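Example record for the data management plan.
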Amino acid sequence: YPPSVPSLPPGLQRDLWQDVYGQQLAISIILRALQAHTQNKHPTKPLVMSFHGSNGNGKTFISKIIAKNLYPQGVRSRFLHQFHPTLHFSNALNVPLYKAQLQNWIQGNVSICPSSLFIFAEMDHMPYGLIDAVTPFLYHQQAFKGLSYGKAIFIFISNIGGDRINEKMLEAWRKNSTREEIQLKDLEPLLASTAFRNRDSGFWHSDLIQRNLIDYYIPFLPLERQHVIECIKAELRSRGYNQHPEDVIQQIGSELTDFPPEEKIFSSHGCKTVATKVALHY
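Corresponding structural encoding:
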């Protein structure tokens, strides 16, 4: 994999390049973003990234790898804060209360650890208007309410724009282009506008987008059969099966659905159901 970036934990780069399949574009952007952020000794703005793509393509997996390598206690660190709308913000009638609680939580935890990591999962299910509670913390500023938030990192995760990414990939494939030729500029404006205009999304008409507070809209491309096969091998290794018959691997791969129905180029669910399918055979 590419040369290491001295300012980042070596384990972060190793884990991303070795354990994530088919997401070279996303990984390269994330590493550059983290490098620029960590090299700045006195940042005036938090790093804000939004991960977009269909289920099973590695968005949550990569966010966990980042947390694992940023803190000694990894995903168990008290400086990692994860929010799930169905768990933490389940009642849309309580949005004003949730907004106040969220702002207090961010302020309190950044006061303890300026380099806190905040991950917001399932943005497509976030109640309308709630996420704007984080807007005041994301501007370029020396301090807000007496605290500097510049060293913090915010990650938003959603399936929003996944269909548009898939359409672009299919279009590129039909033009005989490779996934390596896809660039961020081909997808980033599309993802921003799709998120902003999607009424079913927590980003709908959000100040975060309108005020350009999200630094990177990162596309996660649909996985091809070769990537899913690697996921199957990794799952088998995690279960202690270091020697695995090729025909069994291919059999498991054939049980996963692909799209479009005619060409069957991309995996419909990425690697999301791989563990379940492997469990049926071992």
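Summary line stored alongside the record: The domain at 10-219 is CATH 3.40.50.12190 (Rossmann fold).
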